[in-house]
Amino acid sequence: MSGAALGIEIVVVFFLALFLLHRYGDFKKQQRMVLFGTLLAWYLCFLIVFILPLDVSTVSYHLRSKNLECYKPWSYIPDGVMPIFWRVVYWTSQCLTWLLLPFMQSYARSGGFSITGKIKTALIENAIYYGTYLLIFGSLLIYVAVNPNWHLDWYQLQTIGITAANTWGLFLLVLLLGYGLVEIPRSYWNASKRGHLLMKTYFKAAKLMTEKADAEESLEDAMEEVRKINESVKYNHPLRKYIDTILKKCPAEYQEKMGRNMDDYEDFEEKQNMYPSEKSLVKLHKQVIYAVQRHNRTRVQWHILLEQAFHLEDVAKNEASATHQFVRSFPSQEPEGWFSRYIYTPTVEWYWECLLKQWCYRILAVLLSLLSVAVVWSECTFFSTHPVLSLFAVLIQVAERTYNYLYIEMACFITIFFLCTCVYSTVFRIRVFNYYYLASHHQTDAYSLQFSGMLFCRLTPPLCLNFLGLIHMDSAISHQKKEQTAYTSIMGSMRVLYFIADGFYIYYPMLIVILCIATYFSLGTRCLNLLGFQQFMGDNDMTSDLIDEGKELIRREKRKRQRAEDGENRRREWKERYGNQREDYTRNRNVHSELKETTMKYTRSNRPDRDRVELLQDAEPMDFNADTFADDGLDSESGRHHPGGRYLSMSRSRIFDDV
């Protein structure tokens, strides 16, 4: 089994990152470069999180195997593999977050019409970004060179760069972690309250409708600009190819309205029109891409929010049901699968939605709260090694004494997974106006995807170092002389910068206590509310007004959908009731039409013979005294005998013979 666990986790983590990217990104529309860069960044960060427990168990085995014989853990990784693995993963992620992803961000947002133009725009936008880093690094390098007490080699210079990157990441990590440690347990506890999620959904509906209207207005303004330029620039103008590129990015209904007339062959040189410049077209192209993406995102989010609101209203109605059968206002249009038919029946759904789900959320909220308290306590006491006060360090040391490597791996994985959940969920929840926003159901733009990849790559290394400090596996913090993990050896010794190792890394995480208290009392939410950014607060008049507005919007959409379904049901009933009669009537009508056509064809085919016989009768002399007159030509076909003479045939005795 040597190395098998490492290979299995590498494959599993890849599919996890691919699944998340498919949920938030759009494989069909977004650029392959954007998708690949984001996937690689997420994949490397998830790898660090999942592989680090194996590194800890391997070091624990090495520590115990020096004194006495003990069995190898099933996930033991051979010597020399982990240092190479961590070196490749770490430096690849750092190149992504500090060099490639910022450039790819600007490239994806650029409105240029060629690859060269997009690259030029990306380099100009990142010149200040890269210049700032070079200035800081150069200042530190000059300071080190001037100081006579420091004699740095390449390894120490590399450690300074890693320390600077981890310091920046730790500064942001504590802010996000302090919010997530309180907000995640509280969100599950609030979800267990009856009606809380419904009120919050009404609040979101009111805000989303405002955003949706703003997005539609922005799209209309952008399309109006495109229409004007499309009408002014003719087919033979040099800028026409840029106009066609912009038109391809517009929605289909606007493309049909603005479809240029191909019969218009006016020469653009004959009229003195004010034509746009290429720079203005680049700006318009960027505006159109942003407006279309935002419009599509708000439209999809509105439909998803409506489904959530309808479901929560159904839960509120079914709570008082005496039949214990969950009844939906709008049944699903998709056919039921075997899971819904045999396992998740309406009775099971009622017990889960109306009874069990609330208690499961409460139990989960309590467990997460206990984990949050343990993390806060350990963050404030992890520097104490005699006695050991960090709860996670105590758990790992107890497992090491019993040689329970599986317990070590599970404890490490649960701890670091909880820390990552608190940090990463905050990254997925935060929203910086409309520039950074991770929206599910394939509605995240390229800029936000790459920005999240940058944040993950900058937050994951300091998060893992912080975790190793919590379990006393980082000698730079615990001040213990023992074998380090391969991950810590790649990070280098923080003793090069003693004021960071002994000061910032130890005392700054204590700030998490203040952040947790501020999050518990919703100080940030109240500040944003005072600044004009409406937040969901139960004791606020603006929140109550938005809840009422959202409730009315949901009620209006529900009536609209109900009318549509009622009309569809009436059409279906009408078809079932009168469909058979209509089919019989149509079938009889078709048969009658076929008989009529056959008769008309037969009559038209015999009409010339009848005309010739009548002409012959008019030409021959009539014998009015004859008793009978036989028309051989006509009687041979019809089998009927006519009386002699035309006038004699109208006598009273034979007037009804043909009837």
Verbal overview:
The structure is a single chain. The protein is mainly α and 659 residues long. It is 72% helix and 0% strand. It is built from 21 helices and no strands. The protein has helices spanning 4-24, 32-65, 81-109, 115-146, 154-191, 196-232, 240-249, 252-257, 278-318, 338-343, 346-381, 391-401, 405-429, 446-470, 475-478, 486-491, 498-507, 512-520, 523-530, 541-619, 632-638. Helix 3 (81-109) crosses helix 4 (115-146) and helix 5 packs across helix 14 (446-470). The longest helix is centred in the C-terminal third of the chain and has 79 residues, at 541-619. It is globular, with a radius of gyration of 41 Å.
Low-confidence stretches: 260-265, 610-659
Instruction: Give the C-alpha Rg.
Output: 41 Å
Strand tally is 0
Helix percent reads over 70%
Counting DSSP H or I runs of 4 or more residues, the number of helices is 21
Average of pLDDT: 79
Helix/strand-derived category reads: mainly alpha
Net shape: globular
H/E topology pattern = HHHHHHHHHHHHHHHHHHHHH
Report how far apart the termini are. Answer: 106 Å
- Beta-strand fraction estimate: under 5%
Largest beta-sheet characterization: none
Give the oligomeric state of the chains in this entry, treating copies of one chain as homo and distinct chains as hetero.
single chain
Protein name: LMBR1 domain containing 2b
Pfam families: LMBR1 (PF04791)
Family: Belongs to the LIMR family.
Main location: membrane
